[in-house]
Design goal:
Structural class: alpha+beta
Number of helices: 14
Order of helices and strands: HHEEHHHHHEEEEEEHHEEEHEHHHEEEH
Number of domains: 2
CATH superfamily of the largest domain: Penicillin V Acylase, Chain A
Strand order of the largest sheet: 1-2-5-6-7-8-9-10-11
Number of strands: 15
Length: 428
């Protein structure tokens, strides 16, 4: 080869090297390196990817201090219920440890490994994290709806969800959105808090979204898969509503829960009422609901608060003024039915055919109590998240908009607002 030809060959090889360099380096990025924290319009968004242990460890490393504070605040709030200083911590620990011990045999190894990684990454004792994840099965309230087709302005599906726990626990101080890519499973987004790996409000990469409403019944048992992990399984393993129902039906359940689940691609939503022993599924304008005097069936819409419509489940309900010890079905009462259920129905009917994301937020705001910790609206490819601020309920604060397609595609949202002053690690 002549010197000139050799020189041209070297230049071509060098050019090819630099073209291919980014691709050759991509496999070298480990899940730990892919995990990171960003701020979208001041809302913390945490990206996690990898094996169960890696998900937990990087979660703990990225949010070490917020994880510690979340666990300390929430467990401290529950311990404050008892006024006997030397006994209350032991009593709450016994209360939560007992339910976790019953649930542990039903918990997949993946979630136990993730909690172990979270403990290692954050420095928070594993036992305290287990107690934190025992709490949701012991809480109730909330509301949710899904509308689409003739109910909305452009036919697309809109899914709202209010989480009504307690503002006094100050959980909202460490709110974050998690974009999670578990190895071998569906990626999902969870509106959550530092230190929490379960799901209470979320959507997966297929556009399947879920929210829950705690609905107390008799016959509960903690010998099953805790609700927050069951919801996570729906997002990780479900592609559509039928698969979501199958996962819920086949799983060993614990306590009474009503779910609103929606599929943005199919433009369809369902309400699923559950106890430990029963599952009832309701479509929009379901004929089964038309037979129930207190139900409000609506075309192209589903909605729920605590009140069950299925007679078997309602007969076992303590929620919404139910009394399982009395024969027959009690008419529902209290704010769960009169405000969270009826006002959602009234809002849908008042704006029927004209519901967009702004009107959906208005309906969510109209039913949010003082305990409203979080309010979320899904309208693929966007979602809006509001978290309580101090003692101001979430639905009365600003909703932060996120681009779901961008989050799932690239791990960052190119539409995020820049120039905002982000929370510092200390403030978060």
């Amino acid at each position: 080869m002549s010197l000139g030809r050799h020189s041209r060959f070297v230049r071509r090889q060098a050019a090819l090297f630099f073209v291919l360099l980014p691709y050759s380096l991509t496999p070298l990025l480990t899940p730990a390196e892919a995990a990171h924290l960003e701020y979208h319009d001041t809302l913390p968004v945490v990206y996690l990817e990898g094996s169960p242990y890696e998900l937990g460890r990087r979660h703990g490393e990225l949010l070490q201090e917020p994880v510690r504070r979340t666990v300390g605040r929430l467990l401290g709030y529950f311990r404050s219920y008892l006024k006997i200083p030397l006994v209350r911590s032991l009593a709450v620990n016994w209360w939560l440890d007992g339910s976790w011990a019953q649930a542990r045999p039903f918990l997949p190894d993946d979630y136990r490994e993730e909690l172990r990684g979270l403990a290692d990454g954050s420095g928070v004792p594993l036992k305290e994290l287990e107690r934190l994840h025992s709490i949701p099965d012991r809480t109730y309230a909330c509301s949710g709806l899904a509308v689409w087709g003739k109910a909305t302005t452009d036919g697309r599906l809109i899914h709202t969800r209010n989480l009504d726990w307690t503002i006094q626990a100050d959980l909202q101080r460490h709110a974050a959105v998690f974009v999670v890519r578990p190895a071998g499973k569906r990626a999902f987004v969870s509106a959550s808090w530092a230190g929490f790996i379960g799901v209470l409000t979320g959507i997966n990469e297929r556009g399947l979204s879920i929210g829950q409403i705690g609905a107390e019944t008799e016959g509960l048992s903690y010998r099953g898969l805790p609700m927050v992990f069951l919801m996570r399984r729906v997002l990780e393993d479900g592609d559509n509503l039928d698969e979501a129902v199958q996962i819920i039906t086949d799983s060993p359940r614990t306590v009474g829960v009503n779910y609103v689940i929606a599929d943005a691609t199919a433009r369809r939503g369902i309400a699923v009422e559950t106890t430990r022993s029963f599952v009832a599924v309701f479509e929009a304008d379901d004929p089964k609901e038309r037979e129930v005097p207190y139900a409000r069936p609506i075309q192209d819409a589903v909605l729920r608060a605590d009140t069950a419509v299925d007679a078997r489940i309602r007969d076992r309900q303590i929620a919404s003024g139910g009394d399982p010890k009395k024969p027959g079905l009690e008419p529902p009462g209290g704010s769960a039915y009169e405000v969270r259920y009826l006002k959602q129905a009234e809002g849908i009917r008042a704006h029927y055919g004209r519901i967009d994301t702004a009107r959906a937020r208005e309906i969510a705001q109209s039913v949010a109590p003082d305990s409203n910790v979080q309010s979320v609206v899904f309208a693929w490819p966007r979602m809006w998240v509001a978290n309580a601020q101090g003692t101001t309920p979430a639905a009365q604060t600003a909703y932060h908009e996120l681009n779901l397609e961008a989050l799932f595609r690239t791990g960052s949202d190119p539409a995020k607002e820049r120039g905002q002053t982000p929370f510092s690690r200390r403030e978060f």
